[in-house]
Structures are given as C-alpha cells and as structure tokens.
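Record type: ASSEMBLY
Status: queued
Input:
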Amino acid sequence: METKRKRNQIIGDIVGLFFTVVIFLIPFYFMFVQSIKSKKEANRLSIAWPTELHFENYIEVVKHGNYQLVTAFKNSGLLTLFTVLGLLLTGAMAGYVIQRRKGKLMTAIQSTIMLGLMIPASILPTIRMLQSMGIYKTMFSMVMIEIALQTPFTIMLYRGFMASIPVDLEEAASIDGCSRWQIFSKIIFPLLKPIQATIIILVGVQTFNDFTNPLYFLPGAANTTVQLTLYNYKGQLANTYNLLFADIIIITVPMLILFLIFNKRIVAGMVAGAVKG
Amino acid sequence: MTKTKEKSLYSVWFVVPSLVIFLVFFLWPVISSLYYSMTVWNFETATFNGLENYKLFFTDPAMSTSVPHTLLYAFATSGLKVVLAFFIAIFLTSSIKSKDFIRSAVFFPNLVSTMAVGLTFAYMMHPTKGLLNVVIKGVTGSGVDFLGNPSTALWSIIATDVWKGLSISVVIYIAGIQSIDQSYYEAASIDGANWWQQITNVTLPLVAPAQNSIIILSLIGGLRTFDLIWAMTGGGPGFATDVLASVIYKQYAAGFYGLSTAGNVVMLVLISVIAFPLQHFLNKREEAIR
Amino acid sequence: MKKLFALALVCALLASMAASTALAEGKPFDGVTITFWGGQAEYNDGTKAVIAAAEEALGLHVEVEINPGGSEGDNILKTRIASNDLPDFLCYNSGSKLYDLNPSRCFLDIKDWDLVSRVDDAFLSSVTIDGAVYGLPQSSTQAGAIIYYKPDYEELGLEVPHTWADFVDNCAKLKEAGKTPVYFCGGETWTTQVLFLGDYYNIQAAYPTFAEEYTEGKAKYADIPAATRSWTKYEDLVDYLNEDKSAATVADGNFAIGVGDATHWFILTQQLPMIVAEAEDQSQIGVFGVPGDNPENHGLTVWEPMSFYVNKDSQNIDAVKAFLDFYYSEDMLNLYFETYGANGPSCIKGYELPESVCDAVRVDMQQYFDEGKTTPALEYVSPIKGTACEQLTVAVGLGQMSGAEAAAAYDEDCKKSAVQLGYNWD
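Status: finished
Output:
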C-alpha cells in the first residue's frame, strides 16, 4: 500500500513536470532564445540554441530611442506604485465596512461598485470628462482611472477576506475605547496582510502590463509606458525579433521579481478571499 | 449585531474614497455614453440620431458576426479554465513534491503582458516558420495555418487565452480546496469512498463558491476581451476573430464615435443579460448544495 | 548683496555672449525646440539627415514623437486634436483622411507661404479644403502598383503584361518554373488593399463618372462590372501566393522581392527604398501598374505623399516655417532623396530626382507620368472609404470569400461610413 502510494506519487511528479515544462516553460525558453540571437537567426523563429550569443541585444534595446525604455520604466513604475498603494488603502476601507455593515445603503453601494466588474469602460466620454476637469494626460488622472477600474475586484477580494476575521476583535477594541479609525488602522489593517499580498501581485501585474488604458489616457512621448515600447518593434524595426524578445524579457522581469517575493502568500490570501465572493 | 452597533463601529465614510473615485472616473463616463450612443459624434458636435447607430450595428454583417464570436470566446475560455484549472488544482493539492515549482510555472504566463503573449504565440503559430508548425509538420507532413484559417483562428486565440489566464483560476481553486475541512475526507474515506468518489462527492460540491467566482470572472473577462485578439489577429482573417470589443475599437479608430459608443452599450447589455442571471443561478446552486 | 549683483552680471554676460555667438553663426532659432509627430516611415534616415542639417544651420532643436501607425495612430491624433494638444507640426495623410480631421480648427492655412507655389497642383488639391491650403509634401508621389523582381522575368523570357489576362498567364508560367508568383502579406492587412485600390485606374478608365456617383451612393461595386472586377482579381491569384500568405509582414515582403524569393508584390511604391536596400542591385527591381483589360490603356494609380501640417496654435510657427523653407531647398531635397531614396516622381515643380534614385522610379514609373497615364487614387476624389476594406481584401485574397461577396459587403461598409460622414444614401 505504502509503496504503491509512493510509486503513484513519483509518476505524478514526472508527468506533472513533463507537461509543465512542455506547456508552460517552452514558450519562455522560446522568448529567451530569440532574444540572444542575431537578427537573421531570430528571423527563423526556431528554438535552436544560437550559434553565436548576442547579449548586446539587451543593451541595444535599453539604448533605443534615446533611452526611451528608462523613461518608460519610470512612468510604469510610478503608475503601478500609486495605483497599488491607492487601492490597498481605499479598497481595504471600503471592503471592511461593506462586509461588516448590512442594510439597504450598503447593498446599493455594493451592487453599484460590482457593476464595474461587468461593464466595459467608456473611453471617449472619459477623455471628454478629464479634459473638462483639466487633468487629461496627467499621471494623477491615469492613477485614478486605474484605481477606478480595479476597485470592484479589489473590494471583492477584501470583502471575502474580511468574512474570515471575527467581529469580536472590533467589539473588544471598541469597549477598550478605540475610535473607529483606530480599530481599522491598528487592528484590522494589519490582519489583512495575506490578502494584500494577493492584491499587490494581481493589481501590480495588471497595471504594469496595461497596454490600452495608457494608450488612450496618457499619450505622449514623455508619458510612454513599458508596454508601448513594444511598438518600436513593429514599424521601422519590424522583423528584428531578437530585439522584440529582448524587450519582452526586460519588461517582464520586474513582475517576475514581484511574484517571487509574494509567491508563497498568494494562495493564503485567496483562501478566504475570492472563494467566498 | 444590532443596527446601532453597526453604525457606531463602521463609518460609512470609509466607503467614500472608493465610491467617489469609482463614480467619477468610471461610472459617470459610462452613463454619459448612453447619450452619445444615440448621436453622430465627432467630439465637437453630437447630432442626435435616435437608434440609427444600433440599427446599423445589427444590420452590418461585419459588426453583427462579432456577437456570436464573443459568446463562443467567452464560454469556451471560461469552460476550459473551469475544467482544466480544477484538475490542475487537485493535482497541486495532492502530496506530490514538485507542486510548488509547478504552481509557480503555471503562474508565469500571468506575469507577461497580453501584448507580449499575443506576439509570442502569433510567432509560434506562424504558418511556415512557427515552432508549432515545425513540430506538426515533422509528425504529419503538413502544417496548420492556425491564425490564417478562419476555422482555426478563433480557437487558436482561445487556447492562448487559456494558457495565459489559467493561473488565476488555479489559485482560486487551490484556495478553495485548502479551505475544505479535512474531516469531510476522513468521513468519506470511512464510508469506503475511493479517490475519484472523494473528488466528485466532497471536493466538487465544497469548492462550489470558488468555482462560482471563477465562472463569473472568466466569463466576464471573456466577453470583454480585446488585447489578445488585437495582438494576434486584429480581428482577422477577414472577420473571423472579430469580437465586440475589437469592432468597437475599429469604429472608434475610424472616428465613428457615436457608433462605437453604441457598440459599448450593446456589450454592456449583453454582459448584463448573461452575468446577472448566471450569478443568481450560481448562488441558488450554492445554497442548494449547502 | 554684492555677490548677488556679481552673479547677475555674470549671468547677463553669459546670456549676451550666447546670443551673440548664435547671431554670429547665423543661427536665428538657437535654443528653440519645435515638436514633431510622425510615423516611422516618415521619420526615416532621409528625414533624420535633413533634421540634423537643419539643427546645425538654424540652431533649433526638433523633438520627435513617433506615431505608432495604423488605427492606433489615427486614434491618438484625433484624441490629441480634440484635446488641443498637437505638436508644432506633424506628418499625416493627405486626401480624404485629412477631411476626417476637420483641419480648419487645428491646422494653419499656409496658402500665403511662398513654398506653396513650388508644389504641383495634384498635390495641392489633396491638401486644399474650402480654398485653404494645409499641407506640404513630406516625400515624393507614390503608386499602388506591382513591384517585381526583374531577373525572374529575364530568366523565363516574360514581358511586362499590359492586360490582366497576360499577368495571370505570367503567374502561371512562374509557378510552373517553381517560383512564388505573387507575394501576399496577410500579417499586415493594409497591404492587401493595394490590388483593389491600385486597380482604380482601370475602373476610372472604363467608367469615368464612378467617383462622383459612388460618393452620392449611386454607383456600387457590386453593380458595375468594371468595379466588381477589382474584387474578383483576387480570386485569380489565390493559387499563386506564398505559403505564409496569412502571416507574412511588410518586412518579409521587402526581403522576398528584394532577393527574388517571390516575383510580384501588389504594394505601394513607398516600399521601393527598402526593397532596393535588400536587392543585390537596384536595377533588378521594377514597377508596373495594375493591368486592366485594354492593352492600349495600361496606367498607374497614384497616391500623393504624406503631408506636413502646422499646428495653428503653435508658439513656434516662425521656427517651423524656417525649418520647412530649409527642408525644401534644393540641397536638402537632394540630401533627403540620396539618403533615403524616392517612392515616385517628386511633386516639387521643376525639381529632378538625383541620379542615385532607383530605375524603378526614374524609368518605370516616370514613363506613366510622361504619357499622362496616371490617375489619383479614389481616396483623393471621394471622401468615402469603408472601414472594413482591409478585412475584406484579406478574406477574398486568402480565398475565404468570393470577389462578388466581398464587393457587396464593401458596398454595405461604405454606406455605414457615408452615414457617419453625414451623407444620405437612401
């Protein structure tokens, strides 16, 4: 019995690893191997190891267009940072109260916000509105839009997670004389750590990798974001697959690092989060 | 807890920041789009033309075919994710040793931008040079024009979407499975249930809340999909992979703002008539299981 | 206090020195930065060379922003116009796409500029709206035509075809000889329209009032045989295309024709400089117009170049004007065309392209102009163009739709555009 279980386990490991490598890792190998080839070799799009290594592709990509990639990283980094911070705070506050309070008002607010999960954003009317407010093409408005678009999902996660935190804590704190803000900031907020790891990853990746919204709401060379740098390899530099893939790798690495930091905690946050949505 | 206690503990003001940002930067533009969808709009002047745009949207074959494509795309990606992710999650919650590594690997595609994934797969599906075709040709002798043939193009994008988006579903499932109390399995085991019976009789029903979240999230995501299609085929060849969002984008790009906005409203209605009843149904099912 | 005064004095001195050196070297726009928005194709090596020379001579600095092209580019431009956020000058299409921008509210009317008198009438008519002139040609004219690899023709003893039937015959012979007769770039859909759009010379020859009646909604592609023909021609080619027809890109096409991997390509001649760059020798590359049915009337459908437009509200109009005056000096035109090459004959009156420009332009294309066998593309004579055009040409080109179906679908598509542009077609 025991040996049979062990054998099954080993078979499971082997089969699992095989499929993982074929399905999930080969595409990444494909990207990487193109990125270190010469232009001509990359054009064949094969997965053969390059005859000559061209790591200088990466330098060329960074230098391209007067270090455009550096500007792009700065913009995307700021956008992602502010969006994540903003959502962590506003989402936690809203999710907390929405989960705890019942009543018609809360149901109404909750349903309104959840509409955001269903409805696609309206681009032109949004631009119209930003113009009339005089904040079109500003990092501020871009952050606000990203927050608005991701608020429903964030609140959904927070609300689900809140359900697993016992109410007694707040009642005890209230009896001890804590104010409502203190209860939230001193007691509840620290307990939200697991779900915050999940939110940082999901919101961070979503914002950093966002292509369309910055394209519409934050146009202009000085405002370029990392995803828009992929455009360089259409047009004039078309068919320079080596540079395209070097760019893809460079702009993926930050998210990979973020993932490795929070990897272990993603599931923990979800355990009570989305599940009870 | 009593109402007054709720009020004294939880201030409505906490909801205000989220609510204000959401209302101003999302909901208000959406509401004003209802008006613009009934105009010929060039950003300077909006001339009211009633329901003309809607009529045009549904009578033009180039636009109306996008509706069935959108539905196929949404239900196929959602269905595949719900099923595949479930088995992967079962696998990754078993006692195998490599589960942490595999879970990370499954998550990797989610870290790459849709644009980059689209380009990568479009190249791997290239009819002559693409990796997939090199392999297929080696085995069968002739290649498949994944994205150039209308009968395979949409399915090729669906497969790519599943590859990229599977991880979120897997994570949600894993979370759901881990929160199931071990005593249920022990009880089932005592009753003589084998491995498969434990999955169908214990895991599947108890993971229903997680599953419902996956269904709703992936279905809505599928109905709204744009980036991947745009990166891989731009809606082509011909109109074979045009979905609502890509048609809306094209009308927008052509400067037909009113028409584009009308398309947005059509999408809104479509999502609502699918998502709301579905959610209702799923909630009912969840309660019935309990 | 004393220190401050000294500091101020030094600053003033430095400033006056800077100003005087600038004047001494004749750089009237020293320190002025003008902003420019244009696509990769317009911001080519030729443009870069001229900009560098201008920065040297005039002292100004040109800050360039790249237009991503395609519908994204159109979007960005329209959005920026709507938000009063244009660069000092920019490059964009002439003809019907200029109409879409409603230029009177954003572009400067330059009809009083001396430069305008140097530009030929065909170009001017493509940038003139209600008597106001908005644009100056960024490059030379170009054609929607067939670019071909001459050594294949020599090898098989083929003649340049003057009818469509002869062309298809040539394709059959090429295929028999194991060549790829026609290159098709389904990976970049705009390219697939060129056969359809470039065939307009033949529609116009057979049905001279087509443009007018089409704009009014009276002439339909599905009803007029000469016009339906533009769509059914794709059917004749289905068997002669490259294997990766659904995914090939423009860069693939440049290479394929340049080295002779394929023989013909229906494409805008703006690709010539890039194709010639791939070829062993420029003389291997040739051009002919899309053939019709009358061998006596084989002509060329011509596009006007992209155009420079000046932002009406720019703070730097003088600097932009100085830059453009500089751009169109004989030396700079030579510099541009020698560095980059030409897409077709120039539209500057009395200017001759330098000898370094390829034969395909100076011989093959020029003869159509000399014989008067050219016609402007439909987009210069009618504001209506369906938005699904390239999707339809891909579908019919890949054999997924018949030419007749595509023609009918395109009529519907045009109707939609007409409604949005305020025409009443019912």
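Annotation: Chain C touches chain B at residues 71-72, 74-75, 78, 82, 100, 102, 105, 186, 189, 243-247, 387-388, 391-392, 394-395, 398, 400-401, 409, 412-413, 416-417, 419-420, 422 (CB under 8 Å).
Annotation: Chain C is about 45% helix and 15% strand.
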